[in-house]
Design goal:
Shape: globular
CATH class of the largest domain: Alpha Beta
Helix content: 25-40%
Order of helices and strands: HEEHEEEEHHE
CATH topology of the largest domain: Glycoprotein, Type 4 Pilin
Radius of gyration: 17 Å
Number of strands: 7
Structural class: alpha+beta
Largest sheet: 7 strands, antiparallel
CATH superfamily of the largest domain: Hypothetical protein ph0010, domain 1
Length: about 180
């Protein structure tokens, strides 16, 4: 669990990283980060503008410190999400930042373990992989089967692929916070 201070530091880090990348500046933050943010951890940064999705990129697993992950994926969400044109400096004031810090993935074989609204899903088969964060199912009011179907679709698989024992299902928790 992150403290409120940790969350505020991560949100500020994401906002400054996005602003610096767009404007070509370099805000010197120094080493203001507590040890709790230096552990390797997966995270996603989701951007909204006027309540509409504007970008979302993340790393499923911890490959660098949490603060470095947030910094990097915030920039990618703003500038490299292929679904959207890059965020411009004119939009910065309208952008709302949401961060999802992920727990380690847990492979499951029984879908009864999935709790909609609590768990996110990763579905894998061959070279296909799709992920949906826990809040997606809640936002769309999906039941468990719809959540599984939509995660398969996100992976580029037929919706009912989760029923096949050659498909891997993993769950994770996420600590979600926003500005």
């Amino acid at each position: 669990m992150l403290s409120n201070n940790d969350k505020q530091i991560l949100l500020l880090t994401a906002r400054i990283a996005i602003k610096d990348s767009i404007e070509g500046t370099d805000s010197e933050l120094g080493d203001i980060y507590p040890d709790s943010l230096k552990d390797k951890c997966g995270a996603f940064v989701t951007l909204h503008s006027n309540s509409e999705l504007r970008g979302c990129i993340g790393y499923i697993e911890g490959i660098m410190s949490l603060v470095e992950t947030v910094r990097e994926v915030a920039i990618k969400a703003a500038l490299e999400d292929p679904r959207f044109v890059p965020v411009t400096s004119d939009e910065l004031d309208d952008i709302e930042i949401e961060i999802s810090v992920l727990s380690p993935l847990k492979k499951i074989t029984d879908i009864k373990l999935i709790e909609v609204g609590k768990h996110g899903l990763v579905i894998e088969r061959n070279n296909f992989r799709g992920l949906l964060l826990p809040q997606v199912a809640t936002e769309y009011n999906w039941d468990k089967e719809t959540f599984l179907n939509q995660t398969c679709r996100k992976a580029g698989l037929p919706p009912d692929s989760w029923k096949d024992n050659k498909t891997t299902i993993k769950i994770f928790d996420a600590e979600i916070f926003h500005e």
